[in-house]
Structures are given as C-alpha cells and as structure tokens.
Write a structure and sequence with these properties.
This protein has 208 residues and is an alpha+beta fold. The chain is built from three helices and eight strands; from the N terminus they run αβββββαββαβ. This is Outer membrane protein beta-barrel domain-containing protein.
Length: 208
C-alpha cells in the first residue's frame, strides 16, 4: 500500500506540474497577444513634424501615416527670406527601430527681395537690381534617410539628397540692364535653375 500511494503521489505531482506549465504558457500568450495586436492593428497615424536643413530652411508639417510603410506630410516653411508651403511623402520599407526611408518633397517659396536671394546663393547683388523685390522659387527634393524609431511615437530622422530649384524673377529688366550696360534692354521674367545638395534633420511626434 505504501508503494502504491507513493507512486500515485508522484503521478499527481507530475500531472500538476505539466498542467501548471501549460497554464502558465497559455496565460503568457494571452497577455502578449493584445500587446502585439495593439502595435500592429492600431499604429500611430497622426502627428507633427519639425525639421531644419539646407537649402530650404525650417518647416512644420502635419503628418498622416495611412499605411505602416507610407508617410505623408504638408505644412508651412521659412528660409529667413520668405515663407512657403511644401508637401511630401516617405516610403518606409522596414518597421524596425533603425530603418531606411526614401523621400520626395516639393515646395514653393513666395516673393522675397532679390538682393537677399543673391546673397543667400553666395553672389554679390548689383546696384541696378535693387528694384527687384519679388523673387519666388519652386523646388523638388529627392533623398534617402535614416529613421530612428520609425514605428514609435517619437521618430528622429536624417535625410540626405539632391534638390532641384527653379528660381523666378517677374521683372528682370534692371538686372539685364546692369549686366549689358544698356538702359534700353527690357525683360518680362527670368528663370534660373540649379541642382544642389540637400540635408535635413528633424523629428516627428505622433499624437494618436
């Protein structure tokens, strides 16, 4: 009787241990599943982006992320000469803490003083061009970026690329008169196009 009782106790202990381990695993999976579902089913979609860089200055944008791999942004900018508007998109192929991004952005800057623009580009304004006060420019930028915390509520990024700039002057008569030394030269508008390196640092804070 003693041997049978001891054997029965060992069997009960074994069964309790096995079922206890199974129950612990089930509870662990049950606790982990909602957390995984919350991260995949309800990603952060809306936020604000603040960035600064060259040559296009500082920008504040609203951010929409309709898909985990797609980010859209739009908002106002300033380059210390004038104010502008921009919009862009980013492709995020990986949802890891450190991830690459492929970015395209287009923007427009409203009228600013010609002398300030020329000085900003590194040239010397002429005296005759002082009358030119309305210079606008459009740009398109393509860049490759490094995203830190791409799937998190707070996202830091660095973008490097090239920017195509189309600068326009509505009335370039004063500029051409100074360049040709001919006061009779007239012009309606002038367009200057250039491609230059672009760099941008910034962060995104998602609210929900």
């Amino acid at each position: 009787m003693t041997m049978a009782t001891s054997s029965t106790r060992r069997q009960r202990t074994f069964l309790l241990g096995r079922h206890g381990a199974a129950l612990t695993c089930a509870l662990g999976l049950g606790a982990a599943t909602p957390a995984l579902a919350d991260g995949s089913d309800t990603p952060h979609r809306f936020g604000l982006m603040l960035d600064a860089g060259a040559p296009h200055g500082v920008g504040l944008s609203a951010v929409l992320r309709p898909l985990p791999w797609l980010r859209l942004q739009a908002g106002p900018t300033t380059n210390t000469l004038s104010f502008g508007l921009r919009g862009g998109l980013s492709i995020l192929p990986m949802q890891t803490f450190l991830a690459p991004s492929f970015n395209v952005e287009a923007g427009h800057y409203f009228g600013s003083d010609y002398n300030d623009v020329v000085d900003w580009l590194g040239a010397t304004p002429s005296r005759a061009s002082a009358a030119i006060r309305d210079v606008t420019y459009n740009y398109v930028t393509g860049s490759v970026g490094l995203e830190v915390g791409a799937a998190s509520r707070f996202n830091f990024f660095l973008h490097l690329g090239l920017s195509y700039v189309d600068l326009g002057v509505d009335d370039a008569s004063a500029l051409l008169q100074d360049a040709t030394d001919d006061p009779d030269v007239t012009a309606r508008n002038l367009s200057v196009r250039a491609t230059m390196p672009s760099v941008k640092l910034g962060f995104i804070l998602y609210f929900f």
